[in-house]
Amino acid sequence: MLLVAFLTGYGSTNAKDLLSAGTQSPDTQHLIGAEQGDSEFLIKLAFNKHVEYFKSEMYRRLEKDNDGNSDTYVLYDVQMHLQNAIIYADAQGDNEKLGELLELCLIPFESQHMTDGKWLNNRHGLIGVEVDLCIAQYFSFLTRVLSACQRHGVAAELSDETFQIVTSHIDGWLAKRVNRKRVSDRHLFFVQSALQLYDYTKNTGRTIQNIEFWKQYVEDYMSKSITPKWEVVGQTHEGKTYDCWMLDRTGWAGYRDNDYAGHGSEITKSSSDTDPNAMFWTDGTIKQKKKTLTKVGTDISHARRFNWFFETVKRFGKPFGVSISDEALEGWANNLALRVSRGTVDDPRFTVFSDGVDGWYRVGYSGRKHFGYTSGDMDIHFVASSYGIFGVYNSRIHDWMKAWASKNRTALDGYHGGYALDYYSSMEINIKKPLKGIN
């Protein structure tokens, strides 16, 4: 049995913090109110709003400070909130959207973003692998845009300098030692980039100098880093047992964000010096003792990356000799539908972690007081992300997403049209269907 795949996104917005109906823009009120309307129109409305926002953000955040540094974290944000859009536009053959995304994703390569020949110095306080992560995520978006534009006839020629920047970054990361103890998000994105950039080069006359090394690396990564990290459990639902596939339940030993994952809803998100079940003292510092788990999945915000990774491997893996079976994808969908999706259609919710564990995450993150994610706080990152892609394997995912959105109607107003874009587009993407130009 050939198995595959993996990780996912930061996101600090909680459903409880989202805007009220009175503060919604007219466009968003139209989106929410037209839930049963034309999904293509709804996606277009949200797409236009979100792309314009990120065009502005790219130029604002990549502008150099007095030391010649820029905020490279914007690369992370763009990929997290527009990856669904490129998959959707690719599947639809929407050249207008593809052209808009191409224009956006080439902004970082404009000459003003070079400093003494170095591309994108960083001022966000990120160092080392954190900068690599931002670039890795961005390249997975960029290479998908290039691949789609090339196959659909949208002019997408890169300069030699830009092509060299991209290939050299991929070369550099693939040469690094791989930690096989857990699934590395950075490697995931560079694997996606390798598969998609190769597809782009097939019709452009360009060659990747180290392509044989790339192919061997990807094959090794799938067989040694992904396949061993699957765990399958049976879940009974309405008298029938389903195989639920979970990825990378290693818990990332020593990962401080998971220090309180073993606490559940018995611990309240309150601050008290007298209540033994409060997570925080009155001053906002952490009251409860750490409670780690030997096995726990990735939180559902970051685990959205798995969905994009699976989609890329399924559609672009053949030239590299890798694939992911429908059995694995259906198993992953069953996990999302039956373990992560909880409650009822009248009271839907989603667990904090991607294996059905509903513990605490990032308590006291970065020294913040009164801070931590618990049951219900991460729901928006399931509903408005990439999980809807797997509704074609288990429709209960869509049922729960729609039910939650119906009960939290102001939630899709978040992130400058991004939540609405992800919500509607993810439910329209069918990864079982072939893409134009992909065998």
Chain-wise SSE layout:
Layout: H1 26-33, H2 39-62, H3 73-92, H4 95-105, E1 114-115, E2 118-119, H5 129-151, H6 160-174, H7 185-201, H8 211-226, E3 230-237, E4 240-247, E5 268-271, E6 278-280, H9 304-316, H10 326-340, E7 341-344, E8 347-350, H11 380-383, H12 396-407, H13 418-428
Parallel strand pairs: 5-6
Antiparallel strand pairs: 1-2, 3-4, 7-8
Helix pairs in contact: 2-3, 2-4, 2-13, 3-4, 3-5, 3-13, 4-5, 5-6, 5-7, 7-8, 7-9
What does this structure look like?
This protein is mainly alpha-helical and 439 residues long. It has 2 domains: 38-209 and 409-439, no CATH class; 230-316 and 324-401, no CATH class. The chain is 43% helix and 8% strand. The chain is built from 13 helices and 8 strands. The chain has helices at 26-33, 39-62, 73-92, 95-105, 129-151, 160-174, 185-201, 211-226, 304-316, 326-340, 380-383, 396-407, 418-428; strands spanning 114-115, 118-119, 230-237, 240-247, 268-271, 278-280, 341-344, 347-350. The strands form 4 sheets. A two-stranded antiparallel ribbon has the order 1-2. Strand 1 (114-115) and strand 2 form a beta hairpin. Helix 5 (129-151) packs parallel to helix 7 and helix 7 packs parallel to helix 9. The longest helix is centred in the N-terminal third of the chain and has 24 residues, at 39-62. The radius of gyration is 21 Å and the shape is globular. The relative contact order is 0.16. Residues 1-34 have low confidence and may be disordered.
